[in-house]
């Protein structure tokens, strides 16, 4: 097939611009959708974290003994003392580790986790302390771009 005289073969400038605009719109939606998956992972882990923190606080209040919370890049660990209210914190809190747990030991891949302070304790009244029997402490746990705030005097977690 031959092109008519005075016309060149190919696409016109308006056609090329329209294709680029459509490709840009598709790319913008794809990038937003891809990032949304990470946001869902963050939100899901944050919700499981807050559930585990509430469990730890309730356990401390119901047992009348402190519960230790340790947060690091590899995950979170909740433990209570092996003997009732004395001894080392080497007994994992039931329901927070292993199959069917409230909280996986590690955050989803690519999700960063940090806390200030890295280790804290719920006391028998449900308050947060920096050390067993120590001063009250407010805690901030960062889950990716999200934060969980724990008020020292009440142990209330918000995020």
Provide a quick synopsis of the model.
The protein has 159 residues and is α+β, with helices and mostly antiparallel strands.
Explained architecture:
The chain is of the alpha+beta class and 159 residues long. It has one domain: minor pseudopilin epsh domain (minor pseudopilin epsh fold), CATH 3.55.40. 32% of the residues lie in helices and 23% in strands. It has 1 helix and 9 strands; from the N terminus they run αβββββββββ. A 5-stranded antiparallel beta sheet has the order 3-2-1-5-6. The chain has a 4-stranded antiparallel beta sheet with strand order 4-7-8-9, covered by helices on one side. β8 and β9 form a beta hairpin. The chain is rod-shaped, with a radius of gyration of 26 Å. The mean pLDDT is 83.
List keywords for this structure.
159 residues; alpha+beta; minor pseudopilin epsh fold; four-stranded antiparallel β-sheet; 1 helix
| CATH fold call | minor pseudopilin epsh fold
Approximate strand percentage: 15-25%
CATH H-tier superfamily: minor pseudopilin epsh domain
Helix/strand order, N-terminal first: HEEEEEEEEE
| Backbone structural class | alpha+beta
Largest sheet: 5 strands, antiparallel
Average predicted confidence as pLDDT: 83
CATH class: Alpha Beta
Strand order of the largest sheet: 3-2-1-5-6
Question: What is the number of independent domains?
Answer: 1
Which secondary structure elements does this structure contain, and how are they paired or packed?
Layout: H1 13-63, E1 67-72, E2 75-80, E3 91-92, E4 113-116, E5 119-122, E6 128-129, E7 139-143, E8 146-150, E9 157-158
Antiparallel strand pairs: 1-2, 1-5, 2-3, 4-7, 5-6, 7-8, 8-9
């Amino acid at each position: 097939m031959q092109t008519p005289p005075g016309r060149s073969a190919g696409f016109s400038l308006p056609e090329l611009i329209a294709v680029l605009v459509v490709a840009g719109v598709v790319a913008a939606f794809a990038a937003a959708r891809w990032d949304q998956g990470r946001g869902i992972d963050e939100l899901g882990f944050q919700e499981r974290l807050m559930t585990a923190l509430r469990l730890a606080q309730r356990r401390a209040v119901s047992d009348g003994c402190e519960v230790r919370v340790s947060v690091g890049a590899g995950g979170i660990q909740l433990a209570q003392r092996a003997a009732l209210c004395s001894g080392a914190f080497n007994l994992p809190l039931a329901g927070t580790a292993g199959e069917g747990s409230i909280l996986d030991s590690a955050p989803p891949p690519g999700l960063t986790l940090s806390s200030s302070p890295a280790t804290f304790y719920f006391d028998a009244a449900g308050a947060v302390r920096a050390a067993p029997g120590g001063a009250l402490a407010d805690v901030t746990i960062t889950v990716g771009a999200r934060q969980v705030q724990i008020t020292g005097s009440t142990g209330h977690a918000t995020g």
